[in-house]
Amino acid sequence: MGNLQADIQQKQKEIEQHQSDVFFLYADLGRSVALVQQISRLPYAEAEYETFCTLMDAYESAKHSYEQISGYIAQIEDRSRKIKEIEKDIRLLRNHFTRVYSQLGAIAYEAYGSQTLAEHVRQACFPLFEEHAKRTRKLENQKQAHSGLLGRKIIVLQLDFQRKILPGLLAKAGARLVSIGCEKDLPLAGRQSLLDELDSLNERRQELSQELELHQSAMAKLQSEEVQSPKARMEERASAMKQAWKAAEKAASAYGKALYETLPEQVHSDQIGQKAIHLMDQITLHRKRIKSLQREIKQLENLIQVQELEAQIELENQRIEVLRSQIDTCNRQISQIAASINEKQKRITVLLPPSSVITDG
């Protein structure tokens, strides 16, 4: 019996799979014929068709609502990502500017030390370079003149500090010269390649600034249209769209089933399309298989009932044998009791005088 039950469960699973396939085949059939209905109306399953159209319109509306909020969030995220990328590029560009400024400042510092700078350039650099140059010269002189080991070490440390702060001074000087338009007045050696690079960097900075402004403007416009809790709204609309799709799919399946059951057997592909004919053939195969499986399950269930009835009969036969055995025992007991009664009556007859014997009647 256990094997029969397992066979039934397996066949029930097969039926469920076929029924699921039939559901979606009905839905495909409904959608396929609905396209034909839009061109040429068919006098079949009209109520189911109208229900399907209504629920499909509801789904399309829910889908449009979801796509609106989804597109809005996607634009916000895309603009935000691009703004961050541009800001990162601008920060990296500042490093390139600093390097060029430092190199321009180095040219100016060398020329300042050799007193070959044009006067107006020298005046621009004086506040930045003079104290550092003076301090460095003083320390160099002290180093040459100092004979003590400890004193020389202290001077060396001070000179190291001067060298460490020099790159910042050079970058400031280069930036200052560019800001007042004096970079072209520096000594020629190494200057032109730096100026060309500076022009390229300025051009790139302008491009990035314009691109950043464009995205920031677009972001500001989006934020002015911002809905409350957009991601929560998107989840709600996604859920509504899913439910609407399930309802439309169910209606499409109901329409397809109604078509399958009402379309005449001689319906031609010219009327409903070749795809619909193919779908109906597939549905027929699945339905036949379902009926075959149901018959097989019924047969198995009958076999189980037969086995159960046979088992019950066997038990009842056993009970009959038990009862028969009990009857035989009772009959023997009755015979024994009757013999005992008969013996007792004979003794009574012997014990009483003849006139005292009780007779029947």
Distance between the termini: 67 Å
Cα shape: elongated
Biggest β-sheet description: none
User: Helix and strand string, N-terminal first?
Assistant: HHHHHHHH
Backbone structural class: mainly alpha
Mean pLDDT: 86
Helix content: over 70%
Q: Kindly state the number of beta strands.
A: 0
Number of helices: 8
Count of domains: 2
- Cα radius of gyration in angstroms: 53 Å
The low-confidence runs, each spanning 5 or more residues with pLDDT under 50, are none
| Portion in strands | under 5%
Short characterization:
The chain is 86% helix and 0% strand. It contains eight helices and no strands.
Structure keywords:
single chain; mainly alpha; about 0% strand
Structure description:
With 361 residues, this protein is mainly α. It folds into two domains: 1-44 and 263-350; 76-224, no CATH class. It is 86% helix and 0% strand. The protein has helices spanning 2-37, 46-114, 119-145, 149-179, 191-224, 230-262, 269-272, 274-351.
